[in-house]
Design brief:
This protein has about 230 residues and is an all-alpha fold. It contains eight helices and no strands. The protein has helices spanning about 10-20, 25-35, 45-55, 65-75, 80-85, 95-110, 120-140, 150-220. It is elongated and about 100 Å long.
Length: about 230
């Protein structure tokens, strides 16, 4: 295939670069912003795409962020590429903060005053993960399946996280939308101005070349014969 990598990266390398990108998070962020600025679409469509990507990044729907961003951007007539790029907001460094805020708000909306801290959230997630893989292994063994930790995870973390992520994602998406509009608009205007100036320089250079060629041709015709 044309776009296949010549050197296949080990799975461990791929997983490591998802948490620690090559070149660092600052360089990765600059690249995403640069790609957003250069998208060939009106600012309002790019802004809608950014809003869609940021919104879905707040949700705990892991594995479906790209698909969700695409569907939301398509539904609100936003730029799909901008939506996919904006999911970068929900990276391994920022999502724990998003999750903590969403779980807290979800508990408040559901009237659950459990007061879970970050350590309790991590422990609950860890217990559910261990139980999930134990149940997967139980399919091939005689060990019994248990769903206590998974049930606790769903009611105390996943459901509140999903509920709380909706208003937070909407607010963050709106903020991203209105922050994107002036930046993209200014960049596109500056780029259009540079393109017009370049075209004007080429036109003037062409006119000078044609004028010089005409003067040389006229001079050669008027030259006296020996």
């Amino acid at each position: 295939m044309v776009f296949r990598r010549r050197d296949r990266r080990p799975i461990l390398t791929v997983m490591t670069e998802m948490v620690f990108p090559r070149g660092g998070w600052l360089r990765a962020t600059r690249y995403v912003v640069w790609r957003l600025w250069r998208l060939p679409d009106p600012p309002h469509r790019i802004g809608r795409g950014v809003a869609a990507g940021i919104f879905i990044s707040f949700t705990p729907l892991f594995g479906f962020h790209l698909i969700g961003a695409w569907l939301i951007a398509w539904a609100i007539r936003g730029n799909v590429v901008a939506a996919l790029l904006a999911t970068f907001v929900g990276n391994p460094l920022t999502y724990p903060i998003f999750a903590y805020g969403s779980v807290w708000l979800g508990h408040w909306l559901m009237g659950m005053h459990t007061g879970l801290g970050m350590i309790e959230i991590v422990d609950t997630f860890k217990g559910a993960s261990i139980e999930f893989w134990d149940n997967v292994k139980a399919i091939f063994t005689a060990a019994p399946t248990q769903w206590h930790e998974m049930g606790s995870f769903f009611h105390t973390l996943f459901l509140p996280d999903l509920l709380g992520s909706i208003p937070l994602g909407i607010l963050a998406g709106m903020a991203g939308h209105y922050m994107t509009l002036p930046v993209v608009d200014a960049y596109q205007k500056r780029r259009s101005k540079k393109l017009r100036e370049r075209v004007e320089k080429l036109r003037l250079a062409k006119e000078r070349a044609e004028k010089l060629a005409a003067e040389r041709a006229g001079g050669s015709r008027n030259a006296p014969l020996e």
